[in-house]
Design goal:
This protein is an alpha/beta fold. It has 4 domains: 27-236, 3-Layer(aba) Sandwich (Rossmann fold); 243-342 and 551-593, Periplasmic binding protein-like II (D-Maltodextrin-Binding Protein, domain 2), CATH 3.40.190; 359-452; 628-653. Helix content is 39%, strand content 16%. The chain is built from 21 helices and 21 strands. Helix 1 (5-16) packs antiparallel against helix 4. The longest helix has 31 residues, at 625-655.
Length: 667
C-alpha cells in the first residue's frame, strides 16, 4: 500500500517546493478556498467509505507539480490522517506515466482537482491507461475555483457528462458556493424516477458542509471552537446503481448464429444466449430489445471502424451488448468489455461426408482377396481330383468343366450329380461337403450384414488429406489471418482460400460440392439450418484451427457488467447452459422435420427408400447388382465362346482343316 511515511515526505517535498509567491492567487479568494479543505476531507471520508470502498483501499489523487496552496492543503489533509485507512497514489496528467504494471489492485476511489470541466479530459485519459483503472470506483471531483451561479450548473453537467461517456456513474462534484465558505456536493442518479441511465436529466444536491468558527456562549456552556455544519440529502434518492432497473431496455445487437441465437432477421426465436439473457434481464428487471445485424459483418475483417464495422453499434452506444457466439480478439479488447466466458467452441474444417461405396461390390467384399483366391483354388483343385477319380472309375463320360461345376456345387452345399463307387472317394466328398457347409454358412451370414449396412468411401479427416485430395478451402474473411504463417500447410490454404460473405450459404455448398472444406464453428456446424448434421463431417479437435471461449461483448466499462457476470456465473454453476443448448437443438430439429414433411407432401422425401418401418430394410436391385454383373459377365463370356466356336467351325469346313486336339473343346 502507498502509505509509507518516507514516500509521503518525498511527495510533499516536491509539492512544497512551489512557494505561495510563485502562484498568482488572490489573497481573499485563497483564504476563502482554504476554509473548505476540512469539509473536502470530511466528505471524501464519507464517500470513500461507501459500500464500494474497503479498509486499505487505493485512492488516486490528481495533482500537478505546480499545485496551488489549496491543492497542497488537500494533499496534506490526507497525509496527516492518523488512521491511514487508504493508500494514496498521486498522479500528474501533464506527464507520461511510467510503467505501472506492478500495481495490480484496482483503485476504489478517485479524487480529481480541476479548475474547470475542460481540465478533466487529461486525467481521465491517463487514469484509463493504468492497470488500476476501475470505472465502478467512487469519484470525487473538486473545483479548485469558485464558480458563479451563471456557469455553475453548466460546469457540473459537463463534468458528469464527461465521466458518464467513460461509463463512470459513481460521481460526486464538490463546488464552493459562491462568496461563501459552504461546500456543496452535486451529483445525478441514473435510474431516478424511471430514468434508464440514458442522459443526465436532473442535478441533485446531496450534501452541504461548512467548517465555521463557533463563538463562545457562557450561558449555554459552549466554548469557542471550529465545528462542522452539515446537511445531508443522500437518503432521499437511493443508490446510483440500484439492484433493480424498473424494466429499462437492455439493447442487444446480434447475428443469427445457431445454437446461440435462433431465428431470422424479423424474429428472434430462442437460442442459448437468448435464453441466458431472458433469465438475466428478468432477474435485473430489464427488458431485452434485440436488433439483428447483417451477417456479412460477422464474416468481414474485424476493424476499429465505428461507422460500418462489426462493433459500430456498441461503439456508437446504439446498443449495450453484442451476442451471437462471439469471442474476444485484440481489437475488441481495446474497444469493448467482455463478460466472463460461458461456452467453449472450436473453429475447425467441415467437409462433405464420405459417399456410399459402390454397391456392386457387396457380394465380393465379404472376404478379402486372399480368402477368395484360396476358396477358388480349392474349387479348381477339387474339380481336378474329381475328374481324375472319375477317369479311374470310368463311370461318366464328362469333361473337366462338368467336374468343375460339381466341385462348385459341393463348395456351396447344393446338390451335385456325382455318385462314386469307391469308399475313399466318398470319404473325400464327405469332407468336402462339410467344408462346403461351413463356407456357405459363413458367406451367407456375412452377406446379410453387408447388404443391410451401408458402406462408405474413405472419409477426409485431416487437413493433409484434404490437400492431397485437391480440396479447396473457404470461410470468413476474418479467419484468413490464422493462416498467415510460414509453414507449407498454411501457405497452401491461404493460396486456395475463398472468402465467404455468408457462412451458411457456404456451408450449404457441401451438399453439392465434394472437394471443398469450410472453416466453421463446431457448435454452429452441428446446429445450422443450412445443412443437415449427417451431410457434413467436421475434423476432430486435434485438427482445430483454434479454440476460443464464447462471451458477450459490451460497451467499454459497462456499469451493468459486474451484475451480468455474477448472474452468468450462477447460471453456469446451475447447469442451465446444457439444458438450453438441447432446447436450441430441438428448435432446429423441429424445423428440419417440418421442412421434411413439406418435402414429402410435395413429391416424396427424397431419400433412397431403403427403410420401411422400424429396423426393416428393403433390398433393391443395386444392393445385389454385383451378382447380376457377375452373371452378365459369364453370359458375355459364354456368348464370346459360342461365337468363337461358330467361327472356328465355319473356317474348318471352308478351308477343310484336319482334325486336331482343339476340336474336343471347340466343336
Amino acid at each position: 500500500m502507498y502509505r509509507q511515511v518516507s514516500i509521503w515526505a518525498l511527495l510533499l517535498t516536491v509539492v512544497l517546493r512551489q512557494t505561495a509567491a510563485d502562484i498568482p492567487v488572490d489573497e481573499a479568494e485563497h483564504e476563502q478556498l482554504l476554509t473548505v479543505v476540512p469539509c473536502i476531507r470530511r466528505l471524501c471520508e464519507k464517500y470513500f467509505r461507501s459500500e464500494r470502498a474497503m479498509k486499505g483501499s487505493l485512492a488516486i489523487i490528481n495533482i500537478k507539480p505546480d499545485a496551488s496552496i489549496f491543492q497542497q492543503h488537500i494533499l496534506r489533509s490526507f497525509n496527516e490522517d492518523p488512521r491511514h485507512e487508504m493508500g494514496v497514489m498521486v498522479k500528474d496528467a501533464s506527464r507520461p506515466h511510467l510503467n505501472a504494471s506492478h500495481v495490480t489492485e484496482k483503485a476504489k476511489n478517485y479524487l480529481m482537482l480541476i479548475a474547470d470541466s475542460s481540465a478533466l479530459a487529461a486525467p481521465i485519459r491517463q487514469l484509463r491507461r493504468l492497470p488500476t483503472w476501475n470505472p465502478l470506483a467512487q469519484v470525487v471531483v473538486v473545483f479548485t475555483a469558485e464558480l458563479t451561479p451563471l456557469v455553475f450548473e453548466i460546469e457540473v453537467r459537463n463534468v458528469l457528462q464527461e465521466l458518464f461517456d467513460h461509463s463512470v456513474l459513481n460521481v460526486n462534484v464538490m463546488v464552493q458556493r459562491y462568496n461563501t465558505s459552504v461546500l456543496e456536493v452535486w451529483t445525478w442518479f441514473p435510474y431516478e424516477s424511471g430514468s434508464c441511465a440514458d442522459n443526465i436529466e436532473r442535478l441533485r444536491l446531496v450534501d452541504e458542509c461548512e467548517y465555521a468558527f463557533q463563538e463562545p456562549d457562557p450561558e449555554r456552556n459552549v466554548r469557542a471552537a471550529w465545528v462542522y455544519r452539515e446537511r445531508h440529502y443522500f437518503s432521499d434518492y437511493g443508490p446510483k446503481i440500484p439492484k433493480y432497473y424498473h424494466y429499462c431496455p437492455l439493447k442487444v445487437s446480434t447475428s443469427i448464429w445457431e445454437p446461440f441465437v435462433v431465428g431470422n432477421a424479423s424474429h428472434i426465436e430462442k437460442g442459448l444466449e437468448v435464453l441466458m439473457l431472458d433469465v438475466i434481464t428478468a432477474r435485473m428487471r430489464l427488458v431485452p430489445v434485440f436488433s439483428v445485424i447483417d451477417g456479412s459483418l460477422t464474416t468481414a475483417r474485424i476493424t476499429a471502424d465505428n461507422q460500418t464495422g462489426l462493433y459500430a453499434d456498441v461503439l456508437q452506444r446504439r446498443t449495450d451488448l453484442m451476442i451471437g457466439g462471439l469471442h474476444e480478439n485484440p481489437i475488441s479488447r481495446k474497444l469493448l468489455s467482455a463478460t466472463i466466458p460461458y461456452f467453449q467452441d472450436d473453429l475447425t474444417w467441415c467437409v462433405p461426408t464420405a459417399r456410399h461405396a459402390p454397391k456392386w461390390l457387396n457380394v465380393f467384399i465379404i472376404f478379402n482377396v486372399w480368402t477368395w483366391l484360396i476358396a477358388i483354388g480349392i474349387i479348381f483343385a477339387a474339380a481336378a481330383l474329381l475328374f481324375r477319380f472319375n477317369y479311374v472309375e470310368g463311370l461318366y463320360r464328362v469333361n473337366y468343366t462338368w467336374m468343375l461345376l460339381q466341385s462348385l456345387a459341393f463348395s456351396l452345399s447344393v446338390y451335385a450329380h456325382y455318385w462314386p463307387r469307391r469308399v475313399s472317394i466318398r470319404l473325400f466328398l464327405i469332407g468336402y461337403m462339410f467344408y462346403g457347409l461351413h463356407w456357405n454358412a459363413a458367406y451367407h451370414s456375412f452377406l446379410i450384414s453387408v447388404l443391410t449396412r451401408p458402406r462408405y468411401e474413405s472419409q477426409i479427416a485431416t487437413v493433409q488429406q484434404a490437400i492431397e485430395a485437391g480440396f479447396g478451402f473457404a470461410g470468413a474473411e476474418n479467419t484468413l489471418g490464422h493462416f498467415d504463417k510460414p509453414d507449407g500447410v498454411s501457405r497452401h490454404i491461404a493460396a486456395h482460400y475463398a472468402v465467404c460473405r455468408n457462412l451458411d450459404e457456404c456451408l450449404g455448398r457441401l451438399r453439392r460440392e465434394r472437394t471443398v472444406a469450410i472453416a466453421m464453428s463446431r457448435a454452429h456446424s452441428s446446429n445450422s439450418r443450412a445443412i443437415g448434421e449427417a451431410e457434413l463431417y467436421c475434423f476432430s479437435k486435434a485438427e482445430n484451427i483454434y479454440t476460443y471461449s464464447v462471451s458477450m461483448l459490451a460497451k467499454k466499462d459497462f456499469h451493468l457488467l459486474p451484475k451480468i457476470n455474477e448472474l452468468i456465473r450462477r447460471i453456469s454453476e446451475s447447469g442451465l447452459l446444457g439444458k438450453w443448448q438441447k432446447e436450441s437443438e430441438k428448435i432446429r430439429i423441429d424445423h428440419d422435420e417440418d421442412e421434411g414433411a413439406e418435402g414429402d407432401e410435395g413429391g416424396g422425401s427424397g431419400g433412397d427408400g431403403e427403410k420401411r418401418g422400424e429396423g426393416q430394410t428393403i433390398l433393391r436391385l443395386d444392393h445385389i447388382e454385383g451378382a447380376f454383373l457377375l452373371g452378365a459377365a459369364g453370359l458375355l463370356l459364354a456368348l464370346a465362346a459360342f461365337i468363337g466356336e461358330l467361327l472356328y467351325y465355319r473356317a474348318k469346313r471352308r478351308y477343310r482343316w484336319r482334325d486336331n486336339l482343339a476340336d474336343r473343346y471347340l466343336l
